[in-house]
Design a protein that fits this description.
Elements (H helix, E strand, L loop, with lengths): L13 H18 L2 E2 L2 E2 L27 H19 L3 E8 L2 E12 L8 E2 L7 E2 L4 H14 L27 H5 L13 E3 L6 H6 L17 H15 L3 H10 L36 E3 L2 H4 L2 E2 L1 H11 L12 H7 L6 H4 L13 E2 L8 E6 L4 E7 L4 E7 L8 H17 L13 H11 L1 E5 L17 E6 L3 E5 L8 E7 L2 E4 L5 E7 L2 E8 L2 E5 L6 H32 L9 H29 L6 H16 L1 H13 L4 H23 L10
Antiparallel strand pairs: 1-2, 3-4, 3-13, 4-5, 6-9, 7-8, 10-11, 11-12, 12-13, 14-15, 14-21, 15-16, 16-17, 17-18, 18-19, 19-20, 20-21
Helix pairs in contact: 1-15, 2-12, 3-6, 3-7, 14-15, 14-18, 15-16, 15-17, 15-18, 16-18, 17-18
C-alpha cells in the first residue's frame, strides 16, 4: 500500500523523539515512491543491499532463461541477502514463453518465535500480502467493465458515484485520471492499515474526511491510494457486486488463482497458509494487517498464483478465460496520458492504465511495487519478451531501505542477466547552450507531489526535500537522487529529458517561462518547486530559533526566581503583571503544542491513530501561543515605557519575536487548520 511511506516506530523516549521523527520522515520521502505507497519503479541496485550484480555465463553469452538457470541464480542471491538484511522470508516467481519457469521460497514463513518450529517458505502454499500490487487487479477489473461497455474511461466519475467527490477544479475527474494517479488528490494516512479485528467499509472510508483535490486533474502525477480505492468502488457500484466478490470471480478465479483473495480477515480455508509478517527476522510476528480500503492494497496471494496473474497479463492461456481481450489488454498496457495533458512530462516514464513504465536495457517493462507495514512486493512483466518476475518479502529488515534495495536488486539483476542492453546509452541530443539554460532553470528546492497540503501533516514536507543544483555547467546534481538516499548526477539527452550519469533512471521536466514547474521522476511521482515562504531555509531556522528562545525562557523562570531569593533581590513589580502572566502562558502553550505535534505525527507515521480530541487539544495550545503575541507585545511596550533595563527589554523582545515566529509557522504549515484529518 504505502511502499514504506509510513515507516515503523519503536516508540523512542520523548527526549529523542524529534531526532527519530526526522529520520522517519526522511525515510518516508526517500521510499514514498516504492509506493503506500507503492509502485515506483526501482532504480539501479543499491550497493548496501549486498547483492552482487547478475553475472554473465562463463562462456560470455547471455544466460538462457531456463528453470535451472533462474533457480541457480536466485539460490545464489537470496539466502545470503536475507541473512544480511534481517528479512525473515521471501517468495519468487518467474514466467517466460507462456510457462511458469520457477517458483521459489527462501527463509521462513514462520520463524518459530512463538515457541513452535520454524516453517520454511513454500511458494505454492504460503500467502503474502501484496500491498499496492493489488492495484493491478483493481485496474484489470475496471478495464473489464470498460471492455463490456459499462464504464467509460473519460467520463466524469461522479456519473458512477453515489456521493459528491471533493473537487477544487472545474475539470472532471475520470477513470483515466484515477488509474494514472493524476486525479489531483492529496495524500491521506488515517485508516490506511489497521490490525486484525478491524472492520472494512469501502464507501464509508471514501466519504469520511476525503482528501482535498490540490492539483488540476490530468496535469500532475501524484500517487494516490484514494484514487485507486475510488476506482474499486466504481467497480462495485456498476457491477452491483461487492468489490471483493467481483474481483474474486472475474479476475482471480478466471486467471486460475484459487489461493488468492481480497477478503479481510482471510477465509477460514486460507488462514493457516498465511506467512507471518515481521519487522526483522528476530522480532516477534505482527498481527494480520487490515487494509482500510481494499482495492489499493488488500490482495493476499502465493507466488504461484502471482505467476498465473503475470501470464494472464501477458496474454498467455491460463485459468479458464482471458482476463481481457487483446485490444483491451494492449490499451491497459500503453501510456494513458500524452503531452496534451502532461506537456513535456510525457517524455519521461508514464503510467499506463495501472502499470508503471519501468523500462531497462532498452526492453519494455511494466511493473508495480507494493508495501504494507510488514510485507513488500514487486511485480514486473516484459510484454514484448513474454516474461515476468514477482518477488515478495515478509519483513522490513534491519535498515530503513533494506526491503526496497533487495527488491530492486533482484528485479534489476533479472533484467541485466536475461535481458541485457540492446543498444548503447543514448547520446546527448541538446546543444550545450540550451542544456546550460535548462539546467539553470531547474536549479532549486523541490518537494514530492505526493503530499498532505490541507492539514497539519503538511509540516512533514520540510523533511526529505530534494535540492537540484548545476554541476559542471551543464549537468544537474540531485541531492538526494530520485528514488535514492544518495546524490545523483543527470545530463540532458533530449529537450527537458535527463538521464542519470552511469545509470538508467530518466526524468522529464515541464517548464513555464524560465522556471521548471515540475519534474517527473517516476510514472506517478513528481517533484514540485517549494514556495519561497515554505522554503526549508526560512521555515526550519524560524522554527528552531523560536523553540530555542522559548525553551530558554522557560528555563530562565525558575533560575531567575532562585537568584532573586538567594541574593535578596526585590520581588517583581506588579506593574505589567497581567501581560507577563499571559505571555508566559503563551510560551508554555506553544512549547506544549510543538511537543504534542511531534508525538502525534510520530504516532500517525507509525500508522497509529491519534484521537481527534487530542489533536484539538494540541491546536488549542497552539492557538493560546498565537494569541499570546498580543500580551507579549504589550509587555514589551510596557517594559520600554518604564525603562526597566536593557536586559529585560531584550528578553521581552525575544519572547515576542519567538511567539511571532512560532505563530507564523503554525499558520503557514496548517497546524491550526480547521480539518484535523490525516
Amino acid at each position: 500500500m504505502r511502499s514504506r511511506t509510513v515507516p515503523r516506530s519503536r516508540s523512542p523516549r520523548p527526549a529523542r523523539l524529534v531526532a527519530r521523527l526526522g529520520a522517519v520522515l526522511t525515510a518516508v520521502v526517500v521510499v514514498a515512491v516504492t509506493t503506500a505507497g507503492c509502485g515506483a519503479s526501482p532504480g539501479d541496485p543499491a550497493p548496501s543491499a549486498g547483492i552482487p550484480a547478475a553475472p554473465a555465463a562463463a562462456n560470455g553469452t547471455d544466460p538462457a532463461l531456463t528453470g535451472a538457470d533462474v533457480t541457480a541464480w536466485l539460490d545464489g542471491l537470496l539466502p545470503a541477502a536475507l541473512d544480511r538484511t534481517g528479512i525473515a522470508g521471501a517468495t519468487v516467481a518467474v514466467v517466460h514463453d507462456g510457462t511458469i519457469v520457477t517458483t521459489r521460497g527462501y527463509g521462513y514463513a514462520d520463524t518459530g518465535d512463538g515457541g513452535t518450529g520454524a516453517v520454511p517458505v513454500d511458494p505454492d502454499r504460503h500467502l503474502f500480502r501484496m500491498g499496492s500490487v493489488s492495484k493491478l487487479v483493481t485496474a484489470t477489473a475496471v478495464l473489464q467493465l470498460v471492455q463490456d461497455g459499462k464504464l467509460d474511461l473519460d467520463a466524469d466519475v461522479e456519473t458512477y458515484l453515489d456521493f459528491d467527490l471533493p473537487r477544487s477544479y472545474e475539470r472532471a475527474v475520470t477513470l483515466r485520471h484515477l488509474l494514472t494517479h493524476t486525479a489531483g488528490f492529496e495524500e491521506r494516512i488515517a485508516g490506511l492499515i489497521g490490525t486484525d479485528g478491524g472492520t472494512v467499509d469501502l464507501r464509508k472510508a471514501l466519504v469520511t474526511d476525503p482528501p482535498e483535490q490540490i492539483y488540476e486533474p490530468g496535469t500532475v502525477p501524484a500517487y494516490s491510494n484514494y484514487g485507486n480505492a475510488l476506482a474499486g468502488y466504481i467497480v462495485e457500484r456498476v457491477s452491483g457486486t461487492r468489490f471483493e466478490e467481483y474481483v474474486q470471480r472475474n479476475v482471480l478465479d478466471r486467471a486460475g488463482m484459487p489461493s488468492s483473495t481480497f477478503e479481510q480477515p482471510l477465509p477460514a480455508a486460507l488462514r493457516d497458509r498465511m506467512s507471518e509478517g515481521y519487522d526483522t527476522s528476530t522480532a516477534p510476528a505482527a498481527p494480520f494487517e487490515i487494509v482500510g480500503t481494499p482495492p489499493p492494497g488488500a490482495l493476499t496471494a502465493p507466488a504461484t498464483d502471482m505467476a498465473r496473474f503475470m501470464l494472464a497479463q501477458l496474454g498467455e492461456p491460463v485459468g479458464f478465460a482471458p482476463l481481457l481481450d487483446r485490444a483491451t489488454r494492449e490499451l491497459m498496457q500503453r501510456p494513458a496520458l500524452d503531452a496534451t495533458a502532461l506537456g513535456t512530462l510525457a517524455d519521461g516514464p508514464r503510467m499506463t492504465l495501472g502499470f508503471f513504465e519501468e523500462d531497462r536495457n532498452g526492453h519494455r517493462i511494466l511493473g508495480h511495487g507494493g508495501d504494507t507495514k510488514y510485507f513488500h512486493s514487486h511485480l514486473q512483466i516484459y510484454p514484448d519478451d513474454r516474461a515476468g518476475i514477482f518477488l515478495a518479502l515478509n519483513s522490513n529488515g534491519s535498515g530503513a531501505l533494506d526491503s526496497h534495495e533487495l527488491r530492486e536488486a533482484v528485479v534489476h539483476g533479472f533484467a541485466d542477466r536475461y535481458f541485457p542492453a540492446r543498444t548503447g546509452q543514448p547520446g546527448t541530443g541538446v546543444d550545450a547552450a540550451t542544456t546550460a539554460r535548462h539546467a539553470e532553470s531547474a536549479a532549486g528546492t523541490y518537494e514530492s507531489s505526493r503530499a498532505m497540503r490541507s492539514t497539519f501533516l503538511t509540516a512533514i514536507g520540510l523533511v526529505g526535500r530534494t535540492t537540484v543544483s548545476v554541476a559542471d555547467g551543464h549537468r544537474l546534481r540531485f541531492e538526494p537522487g530520485p528514488l535514492s538516499d544518495s546524490p545523483a548526477l543527470y545530463e540532458e539527452v533530449a529537450p527537458w529529458v535527463w538521464q542519470e550519469v552511469g545509470g538508467q533512471r530518466t526524468i522529464a521536466m515541464r517548464a513555464t517561462g524560465d522556471r521548471v514547474e515540475a519534474i517527473s521522476f517516476d510514472s506517478a511521482f513528481t517533484l514540485l518547486p517549494v514556495e519561497p515562504a515554505r522554503a526549508s531555509g526560512v521555515a526550519i531556522p524560524v522554527l528552531a530559533l523560536s523553540t530555542v528562545v522559548l525553551l530558554l525562557t522557560v528555563l530562565a523562570w525558575p533560575v531567575g526566581a532562585i537568584v532573586r531569593r538567594r541574593l535578596g533581590g526585590a520581588p517583581r513589580e506588579r506593574a505589567g503583571r497581567t501581560a507577563r502572566i499571559l505571555s508566559r502562558v503563551a510560551v508554555a502553550g506553544t512549547l506544549l503544542a510543538f511537543a504534542g505535534w511531534v508525538l502525534s505525527i510520530g504516532s500517525i507515521m507509525s500508522l497509529q491513530d491519534v484521537p481527534g480530541p487530542a489533536l484539538r487539544g494540541i491546536q488549542a495550545l497552539q492557538l493560546v501561543g498565537l494569541l499570546g503575541v498580543l500580551p507579549a507585545g504589550v509587555r514589551l511596550a510596557d517594559d520600554v515605557r518604564r525603562h526597566v533595563g536593557w536586559r529585560r527589554i531584550v528578553g521581552s523582545g525575544l519572547i515576542l519575536v519567538a511567539l511571532v515566529g512560532a505563530g507564523w509557522f503554525a499558520v503557514e504549515f496548517r497546524l491550526l487548520a480547521p480539518s484535523i484529518s490525516y
